[in-house]
Amino acid sequence: MAKFGKKYNKVVELVDKNKFYPISEAIELAKKTTTTKFDSTVEVAFNLNVDPRHADQQIRGAVVLPKGTGKTQKILVLTNTKETEAKEAGADFVGGKDMIEKIQKENWFGFDVIIATPDIMAELGKIGKLLGPKGLMPNPKTGTVTPDVKKAVEEVKKGKVEYRVDKNGNIHAILGKASFKAEDLKANYDVIFDTIRKAKPSAVKGAYIKNIAVTTTMGPGIKVLIEL
């Protein structure tokens, strides 16, 4: 059985396990129950009534958070044709086959996001087994495979986050940092909630969003009232 520290045990008493909090209250409570010395990440988890085994229920995409994530993402752009554009947009690393070989031979992962142009995807496929498990493989659905490198880099820098349903029907997403103003975390939540709500597959009958919870790094989970 997991053992928790005094700090955690103290803040967990502030959370009513049987209550579903309106999102504004849940966010305020999450900020109060952070236990780390560093600036904790605030996350939201959605439990959905979907079966990811069916292709039409594999919910995946990306959204730009209006208030950002509070995290600086290192961006690698892989391209044969848009190197200058990528550098001017502010990508941290830019290259083609040379970068792919660096990842393959040196096991280099000094980046958080890969943006790739369509012309290099055949080469990139060779290291799909390395990138896939880390969630780094670019995908058109998330806007990371695109000829518009400038737009893609700018969106990541503004606070673009990806979301993807797991095999148990859960989606986890970042809302920001515990140091954010509550209204900024709420603004980010509203965008994520609305995006997932609109992604409801037509095959789903009955309640689509089953449960929502907000938490901070190493903090207690807080149940959120679903307000459609």
Provide structural commentary.
This protein is α/β, with parallel strands linked by helices. The protein has helices at residues 6-12, 23-32, 83-89, 97-106, 121-124, 128-131, 149-158, 182-198; strands at 41-48, 60-64, 75-78, 93-95, 113-116, 160-164, 170-177, 209-216, 222-223. It has a four-stranded antiparallel beta sheet. Helix 2 (23-32) crosses helix 8 (182-198). The chain starts with 5 loop residues before the first helix and ends in a 5-residue tail after the last strand.
Q: Outline of this structure?
A:
The protein is α/β, with parallel strands linked by helices. The protein contains eight helices and nine strands. α2 (23-32) crosses α8 (182-198) and α3 (83-89) runs parallel beside α7.
Give short descriptive properties of this protein:
228 residues; alpha/beta; four-stranded antiparallel beta sheet; 9 strands; 30% helix; globular
Question: Total strand count, please?
Answer: 9
What is the 3D shape?
globular
What is the multimeric organization of the chains shown?
single chain
Low-confidence stretches: none
Strand content: 15-25%
Which bin fits the share of residues in helices?
A: 25-40%
Distinct helical segment count: 8
Radius of gyration from the CA trace? 19 Å
Mean pLDDT: 93
Instruction: Report how far the terminal alpha carbons are from each other.
Output: 37 Å
Q: How does the helix and strand content classify structurally?
A: alpha/beta
